[in-house]
Every structure is written in C-alpha cells, then in structure tokens.
Specification:
Blueprint (H helix, E strand, L loop, with lengths): L8 E4 L2 E4 L3 H12 L4 H9 L8 H7 L5 H7 L11 H7 L18 E7 L11 E7 L5 E6 L4 H18 L7 E3 L10 H9 L3
Parallel strand pairs: 3-6
Antiparallel strand pairs: 1-2, 3-4, 4-5
Amino acid sequence: MVEHMVMQGHLAEGLYILEEPIEHYRDRAVEGLRNSRLASQVLLTTSSRSDPPDFTLWHRRLAHLNPAALQKLGPTIEPHFTHCSTCILAKQRRTRSQVPALRAERPFSLLHSDSCGPLPASHSGAKYYLIFVDDYTRWTFVYFLKTKSSTESTLCLQETLAFIRSHYPQWPVTRFRCDNGRGEYDNEMFKGLLRTNGI
C-alpha cells in the first residue's frame, strides 16, 4: 500500500496536534483527497501499527458514521462496540405531550401574529401579508404589505389595537405572541408600541 502523508502531528490526550499551521497542509490535503483510498490510508496509518484501529474512536471522530460505512474505510476495522449513547439519543423520538395548550379565557387577551412572503405581487404591488389572530375567538385581521419593513408592520399593529380599543374597550390586548421575525417584529418601533400599550 502506498501511503500519502497529508498532515503531521503528535498525539496529546486523544487528539492529534498539528505541528504547523493548517494553511501549510492545504495544498497537500487537496491533492491527497483526489486519491479515493486516502480516507482508509489515513485511518490505518494514524493508528498504532501493532493494534487494530479503535472502532469506537473512529466512529466518534467521523461524526458517528454508521458501522457498515466505517468498515469500508479500513479493512482491518472490526466493529466491537455494543452501543453508542450519542447515536441512541440522536435517534430517539421525544414523546409528544398530550396535554392541550391552555386557551385564552376572554377575547383579545392573547393575540397571535405571523407574516408570509414574498409572494407574486398583487395588482396593488403587495408581496407580503401580515395576520393577527385572537386566541379566544379566532377573529383574524389580515394586512397586505409591499415590504416587510418595521414601519409597515408597526402601522398594522397600531391599526389593529385601535380597532379593538374603540370597538371592545372592555377587552384590551394583554399578551402578544409571534416568531420574532427580524424585519417585522424584532425592532424598537414595534416593541415600543407593545410597551406603550401595556402588552
């Protein structure tokens, strides 16, 4: 077997420390990667000559590569570990909570919001839409926007709050839920409007 040295270093606490900066090895590594057997050569030559390569160690080093693929890299590698706790946790499904989320107990105590776009432009030039949904009644306010700017989204919220305040003063908006979109929600103008309305 012809060996091709890509990098040189020393072993310290289970890691190989390179003796020169990575830039020094870049050209050699690119050339070496053109050889299809490079991975198995590196795998075989970096391990001790007397001992076979440690399957568990290389399984972890190669981002928890599956055993069949790992055996293809080096013919002397024999899978001998019983389980990998990281792989088990990564593939384990979480149990879904069967407890329903608590709904609002009165109209407009919780307002949900989301935006969508860009979409094909409408006749008026709108490419986005912004919605506000009341958690209790599912009453929905829809606004069509030309941009996702903080100015437009804040004006939409202001209009919605003004409508609720003038038509239903006994039910003020107390909570607001959104996905914190950078353009439309996560800005000082929008947050300031929420603060001044006690939301």
